[in-house]
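Retro notes (design track)

What went well: tokenization of the new backbones is finally stable.
What didn't: we kept losing track of which sequence belonged to which structure.
Fix going forward: every design gets posted as structure first, then sequence, in one message. First example under the new rule, 343 residues:
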């Protein structure tokens, strides 16, 4: 079968032929319907994240069960499933509470999950080490549902933690209306009545955010004007919850300047920015969070939101053979919503 492979840091992805997997005891093989293309893949390809290659890329996957290993119960061939992406040890305290994204033994595993150290879903078939990492799609189309396992789960995890702050008189800021940001806008609209401000440097993405339910949009191309515009909208209270899906220095600096006292700042993006601290900057009472992905239980909740038609990933599909070109389009900011590769 053809697969999109990570070879080593600084080396472009390669499309090669490899042997299709078979399940060992306790394992499951799925036939991949679609694999999302994520900015995290670019960090794997372009920067040294300590993940030894080669392995098949693709950590945002959905499809149908193709084969069950000995001892696997509760599933049958043909079941439509999403793959829970962060693979922990399955034994520690956080894994036992379904939060494998915060596995206590992650440093000793040698992998962060399928597509992030282990073979992922940018291939016709994918081997899953345990059925605990599968979640039923509840009737959703696997191609459209593939991005839910990261592009929706990651913002959902952050937003769920912030829900007590997101009261009707609060204001929430979403910075970066890309794969994760466009899902965050929908999740916020489905779960809160807080005033929502969407921010980005791309007017087309801001128009998209407006259609998805953002009350206000701000272009951050000119940071000074963006700061003034956001402060005009919030008044002295400032932003209650800021969600930065970019994580670059200019976006982090903007968030630090617009959050109010007793606020939350979630830095989700991996663009290398730093939160600097001095007295009352960020303001007193502001909690800075660095969330990572989400729990298995939360993925079930995300799928339930999608099954109820409250959220929907904006998907642009491409043949698997175009993976290298799609990665370059992602680098150039030319992907609308989420790109999904089709084996």
């Amino acid at each position: 079968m053809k697969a999109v492979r990570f070879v080593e840091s600084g080396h472009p992805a390669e499309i090669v032929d490899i042997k299709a997997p078979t399940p060992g005891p306790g394992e499951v093989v799925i036939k991949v319907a679609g694999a999302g293309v994520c900015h995290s893949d670019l960090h794997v390809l372009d920067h040294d994240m300590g993940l030894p290659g080669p392995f098949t890329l693709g950590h945002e996957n959905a499809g149908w069960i193709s084969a069950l290993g000995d001892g696997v119960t509760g599933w049958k061939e043909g079941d439509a499933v999403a793959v829970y992406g962060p693979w922990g040890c399955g034994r520690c305290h956080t894994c036992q509470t379904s939060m494998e994204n915060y596995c206590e033994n992650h440093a000793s595993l040698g992998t962060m999950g399928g597509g992030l150290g282990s073979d992922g879903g940018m291939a016709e078939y994918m081997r899953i080490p345990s059925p605990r990492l599968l979640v039923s799609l509840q009737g959703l189309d696997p191609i459209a549902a593939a991005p839910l396992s990261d592009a929706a789960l990651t913002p959902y995890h952050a937003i769920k933690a912030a829900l007590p702050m997101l009261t009707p008189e609060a204001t929430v800021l979403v910075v970066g209306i890309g794969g994760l940001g466009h899902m965050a806008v929908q999740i916020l609209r489905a779960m809160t009545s807080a005033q929502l401000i969407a921010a980005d440097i791309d007017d087309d993405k801001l128009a998209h955010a407006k259609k998805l339910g953002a009350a206000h949009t701000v272009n951050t191309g000119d940071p000074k004007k963006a700061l003034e515009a956001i402060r005009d909208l919030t008044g002295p209270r400032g932003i209650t919850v800021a969600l930065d899906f970019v994580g670059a220095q200019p976006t982090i600096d903007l968030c630090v300047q617009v959050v109010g006292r007793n606020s939350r700042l979630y830095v989700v993006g991996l663009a290398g920015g730093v939160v600097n601290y001095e007295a009352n900057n960020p303001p007193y009472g502001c909690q800075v969070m660095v969330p990572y992905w989400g729990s298995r239980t939360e993925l079930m909740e995300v799928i339930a939101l999608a099954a109820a038609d409250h959220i929907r990933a904006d998907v642009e599909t491409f043949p698997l053979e175009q993976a290298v070109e799609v990665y370059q389009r992602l680098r150039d900011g030319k992907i609308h919503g989420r790109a999904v590769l089709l084996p």
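Added context from the reviewer: The two ends are 9 Å apart (CA to CA).
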